[in-house]
Amino acid sequence: MLSAAAAAVLAGAASITAIGEWVADAPQRVLALLGFRPDPLTGLIRPPHATTIRLVLATADGDALDRAIGDFLQERQAPPRGRKAIAVDGKTLRGSRSAKRTATALIAAMTHSGQVLAQRQIDRKSNEIPAFAPLLDGIDLTDAVITADALHTQHDHASYLHERRAHYLAVIKRNHPGLHERVRRLPWRDIRLDHVERTRAHHRDEIRRLKTVAFAHIDYPHARQALQVVRWRRDMGTGKLTIERIYLVTSLPPGAADGSELAAWIRGHWRIENQLHHVRDRTFHEDASHIRTHHLPRVMAGLRNLAIGVHRQDGHTNIAAALRHTARNHLRPLTALGLT
């Protein structure tokens, strides 16, 4: 049943009803490949009703499903060139909120190339911080660079990543006032520029300047360098100029990565918003979904991650177009999943 749901989502089904319709329309050969058995009287394979699919998926173990999806995508992924960069970020499924329960919140770990390697549900009475280490426990982090927002700039997280032989790029904001002030007061004017990049997109002219400095000691576990990123943004329509300064620390020693690599990882972190959260919202209409029964919000989010990851690994950059292509032939999603 889960393989049928996965194939349907790969073909663009965004809801339980759509999954049921895809399965009901599938040819007998496809249903047989999905594991459905023929009726002993008629010899025909009768697909399950959408309600049956809903009940099965609602009782699925979300943790087990997300682990299976993460393992599948990791095995299917080509070896990365250079260091593997992994972004960690959370997302709330707004449509899952009801009068009796809060919305389901998830935290995911995604490669900067767009494949979700792990996902975990956040406890309703907690936040993302305690879920950070359990989320990453099942991923090989050796020599990887982990990026996250300032919420995860935590001493325990830095120590955990060091024990897992991984590195971090940690954003320093005023929620760590002492550390932020010390890094901010470094003599940045006297430090040479490591990288500069200029882009024009979305009616904006943007310049990003990166500086790095090594230090002997700072009050953050295993930190070896501090970084300053200055972003100059000019709205080409209004002419308005904004300047933003961001400070980070990293466990990467001097010389382990050049300025262009560091800048790419810092920018690459936000791909988890553009290549995952945005796609799930706009292409799969996740926030508009009112699925609320038991584990269904989590299960459907996991299946969407699977579809996005498989299509990206197959070289598709436009997920909506990939879904349309896959939907034209019932065998295409099975081929992508290795079922044919």
Structure description:
- By secondary structure, this protein is an alpha+beta fold.
- It has 13 helices and 9 strands.
- A 9-stranded mixed beta sheet has the order 3-2-1-4-5-9-8-7-6, with helices on both faces.
- The mean pLDDT is 89.
Mean pLDDT, as a whole number?
89
Task: State the end-to-end distance.
Answer: 16 Å
The topology string of helices and strands comes to HHHHHEEEHEHEHEEEEHHHHH
Overall form: elongated
Number of helices: 13
**How big is the Rg?**
23 Å
Q: Name the quaternary structure.
A: single chain
Please report the total strand number as a whole number: 9
Please give the order of strands in the largest beta sheet.
3-2-1-4-5-9-8-7-6
The largest sheet, given as strand count, sense and whether it forms a barrel, is: 9 strands, mixed
Strand content: 15-25%
Structural class: alpha+beta
Note poorly predicted spans: none
**What percentage of residues falls in helices of 4 or more residues?**
25-40%
